Amino acid sequence: LFGPELETTIVVRASAAMIVWLSPKLSNFQDEHPQTVIKLETSLWQNELEKHPVDVEILLAAQTQSDLRMVKLSDERIVPVCGLQTSKQIQDPADLIHLDAIHVLGFDDHWARYLSANDLPMDKMSLRIVVDTSVAACELAAAENGSAIMFERFAQQAIAAGRPIKIVGDPVANGQSHYVVQRNSGSTEKRATKAFCEWLATCF
Prior knowledge:
Blueprint: E1 8-14, H1 16-22, H2 26-32, E2 36-42, E3 56-62, E4 71-83, E5 100-104, H3 110-117, E6 126-131, H4 134-142, E7 147-151, H5 152-160, E8 165-167, E9 172-182, H6 187-202
Parallel strand pairs: 1-2, 1-3, 5-6, 5-7
Antiparallel strand pairs: 3-9, 4-7, 4-8, 4-9
Helix pairs in contact: 1-5
């Protein structure tokens, strides 16, 4: 065993994009809670029988969600992004129709919602690439493979981290929010989890 014995471990499940978004902020929590191990798991396409027990889950759900266990972190907006070279072709939202569209599984309405908000037809789009994470969609856009619709906060994070993408349209509300749910029962984990959830709320 190397290093000091740590007090407790909390398991946090979130989307890959949310984990990437949290990564530059996480050291602040670790500095304040040096005896806590944070285990991050992605929530990609797991059904209920496959899920391992977790202490904290960060969920994306409709803003009309009524589950009292879910504490809202933020409402979300979506934006179109593309690579820096491709972005030179975009003067207004109508120009997006001429690009190959990158589709993210699980976010089936993002393109339709964005185009509808700008009075543009969905049937003119060419859905040429399909991926299963927003992280992959961002990388494909950065590599000049077309345009993707993603959450504004994730796009801003990618740009801040140096990814060669650009937001090429105004944000549109998509009726969804991120929530946090505390799921554990052990007293030690409960204390650590409560501290993590309180810290998490300050990040949004």
